[in-house]
TrEMBL record:
Cited Pfam families: DUF2205
InterPro entries: SCOC
Its job: Positive regulator of amino acid starvation-induced autophagy.
Name recorded for this polypeptide: Short coiled-coil protein a
């Protein structure tokens, strides 16, 4: 089998040694350079990689949004707890003052000077 390569257009002419061709035509085969094959694979890999990146990006965006909502909920809860804490502190101060007033008014809780009574 012999063949000529036309380097201008990348064609390869295949000449058959067998006489099985009835019309006597030669077959012209065109080959792609190897760079085109790898480019096609890169394009396919690039598309797949792009889809993976897009899916990862969507997943990360959803995760960020979920975390933002969680943070908002936690911030609201912290604010509510702070408010409740201030309210309870105020109530405790009022109750503490009330108890002090009751103790000072009662003779049971009066401080007694035991030395002066003994004499």
């Amino acid at each position: 089998m012999e063949g000529d390569v036309n380097e201008d257009d990348g064609t390869f002419t295949n000449i058959s040694l067998a006489d099985d061709s009835a019309d006597g035509e030669t077959t012209v085969l065109r080959f792609r350079p190897e760079e085109q094959y790898s480019t096609m694979n890169c394009e396919i890999d690039g598309e797949t990689e792009n889809q993976v990146e897009q899916e990862e990006k969507r997943r990360l965006i959803n995760q960020v949004l979920e975390l933002q909502h969680t943070l908002e909920d936690l911030s609201a809860r912290v604010d509510a707890v702070k408010e409740e804490n201030l309210k309870l502190k105020s109530e405790n101060q009022v109750l503490g003052q009330y108890i002090e007033n009751l103790m000072s008014a009662s003779s049971v809780f009066q401080t007694t000077d035991t030395k002066s009574k003994r004499k």
